[in-house]
Amino acid sequence: MSHKHATDDPALIAGRPVRVAPGITRVLAPNPSPMTGPGTNSYIVGTRQTLIIDPGPDDRGHLDTLEDLAGPDIQAICLTHRHADHAAGAARLAEMTGAPIRAWPKHTRGEHDSAIVNDGPLADGERLMADGQMLTVWHSPGHAADHVVFAANTGLLLAGDTLMQAATVVILPPDGRMADYLATLDRLAELAPRRIAPAHGALIDNASGEIARVKAHRLRREAQIAALLGDHARSPEALVGRLYPELSAALVPVAARQVLAHLIHLDEQGAAVSTPGGWRAV
Fold it and tell me: Taking a C-beta distance cutoff of 8 angstroms, is the pair 159, 172 a contact?
């Protein structure tokens, strides 16, 4: 789940399969919203033996399309994370196809998570094969504690909600953690993908530039928050009013949680502290 902006990419049409790389097909789910942008991208890897990445919402038409495109030999239904816009359809698709669900192990269900049976927990560095396509699993927490990305041997990164086109990833504590997210961006930079296939929006061609841009943006925002604290005690909601004066009222609670994630990170660095009257700089 993330705060997205509209996109004018004509290929982002729900239900239309789009080849984003050799042996990798994207299918947009019909779940557009202020928090999902045009909707959730599901990916099918392989042509005969296949993997499905992020089946998306529990929408029968979308799941039927995934089943038809993936064919009868689906090796696994893999999740970047358990948020409902990515994973709510997993249980039904598993029933339809008999394919196992695979996700990063998680002991406590987050507030935005779908309930799943994790038939085969994913492991960091694990390699998944589908028709000669190889995906390497990398744990990438920050947006969610159980988040993983899938790095294809072609240089394409199936990035889930770590990065996305024309949008800002939302970090919602406690399942989301800013320190983890910044560390994940560093890890993705080390992986040096050529292109990014996000869970929301179109392909990102300048992968290294986008990773650097997003990290710089997050650090600038954190510096702004630290400067606004000064000697004054402020709530996350008050900080939202200063940082995003034009933000619609409906998005203020989510923005306040994002600000809280930065405040927690500042606290972890010894730069801010929560008091009964609000957050203060140290």
Answer: no
Q: Is 115 helix (H, G, I), strand (E, B) or coil?
A: coil
CA 243 – CA 77 distance, rounded (Å): 40
> Which contacts of 258-264 are long-range, i.e. CB under 8 A and separated by 24 or more positions?
258/170, 258/171, 258/172, 259/225, 260/173, 260/236, 261/171, 261/172, 261/173, 261/176, 261/177, 261/178, 262/178, 262/221, 262/222, 262/225, 263/225, 263/236, 264/173, 264/177, 264/178
Of all helices (H) and strands (E), which one includes residue 25? strand 24-28
pLDDT digits (tens, 9 = 90+) for 142-157: 999 999 999 999 999 9
The answer to whether the peptide bond before residue 174 is cis (omega within 30 degrees of 0) is yes
Radius of gyration of the chain (CA): 19
With tokens 């269900």, the residue in question is: 109
State how beta strands 49-53 and 73-78 pair: parallel
**Model pTM greater than 0.85?**
yes
Q: What is the pLDDT of residue 3?
A: 39
Give the position of tokens 């400067």: 227
pLDDT tens-digit map of 255-282: 999 999 999 999 999 999 999 999 999 9
* Nearest partner of 171 among 215, 206, 137, judged by Cα: 215
Q: Which two tokens stand for residue 231?
A: 């000697």
